[in-house]
């Protein structure tokens, strides 16, 4: 777009914003601190022109619109703060990520690729024994509720159009097998069953479900999920920070792709890897 076309688009959007706000040229001149002649020149159909940076900022503020929108650089009409509020939101939740928010986003994304980095092991692959152990002392949500939520998530995953990728540090699985950290006290039999079930499930559902294991000494990631091209949710603990802006979603997708590229255990090997860990317990 050349300068004249940009100026014409600016004039059209400035006129549209004035109509929407039910303001006239004098109102805008007063609100933006500009001469009325300056406003008239910007709205001239015969010789449209672009304002300088200071005038542009003043006009955008007076009209409560985005300066990028006025210039045709964005489709978001609202002011920057409003755009940010719409694009980034906080969703309150219970401690674990199998809740109403996550399930709703999963349902909304059925048919699109889901990319998931879990907080520990993937909930969709956890056995009931492991869930019962993990949430035995939970006061916000019971183990039974966690089990039901996981069943619902697994049912969505079993649909033919499902496509889900999970990225996890290899050390997380190895630490689970050894009963380290939060898994200390979980009986060896339960750990063995969990890894065996995980391995068989990964082999049965491949390629609609793929697990990539990256090295924790090479890559790091906070827990998050990308739902197609619509949403990305960063799990903070007790709440999600959710993103709907396309660039934000692409940023999370790119980070996930980087984890996959640096996987030390590829998705077609992950099921066998889990089974070998089970056999070693």
TrEMBL record:
Keyword Ion transport: no
Keywords: DNA-binding
Keyword DNA-binding annotated: yes
MF terms in GO: DNA binding
UniProt xrefs under Pfam families: HTH_26
PROSITE patterns xrefs: HTH_CROC1
Entry-linked InterPro entries: Cro/C1-type_HTH, Lambda_DNA-bd_dom_sf
Domain called HTH cro/C1-type: residue spans: 14-70
Protein name as catalogued: Cro/C1-type helix-turn-helix DNA-binding protein
